[in-house]
Specification:
The chain has three helices and two strands. The longest helix is centred in the C-terminal third of the chain and has 34 residues.
């Protein structure tokens, strides 16, 4: 993974627009300030270009992914419990699944 290079001068319009530069560029084309590797999520300066996200953004992304996995496990279990009950009463499996999704509302 590679971080993006950007201007870190707060007064520069390239910094405010979060403009990304090539790895070969060393200075901002607008203000002339030296470029640095920044976090893709929050534009915080990174110590080196090895990582794409800072520690905080990486933790937030991991928490979101874990939350989504947990919800999918719950929804999958609920669907497995609801579909046979719906089929018992003569509904088609797709209709039962749609009703389950409406009921659960992720």
């Amino acid at each position: 993974m590679k971080a993006k290079k950007a201007c870190i001068n707060d007064n520069c319009s390239a910094c405010q627009k979060k403009t990304a530069y090539k790895d070969t560029d060393t200075f901002c084309s607008i203000c002339g300030h030296p470029l640095a590797y920044v976090c893709k999520g929050c534009n915080t300066q990174l110590p080196n270009g090895d990582e794409k996200y800072c520690v905080r953004c990486k933790a937030e992304r991991k928490d979101k992914a874990d939350d989504i996995k947990q919800k999918l496990k719950w929804v999958g279990g609920a669907a497995l419990a609801i579909i046979p009950a719906g089929l018992k009463y003569g509904k088609k499996a797709l209709d039962v699944a749609k009703d389950a999704v409406k009921f659960i509302k992720l």
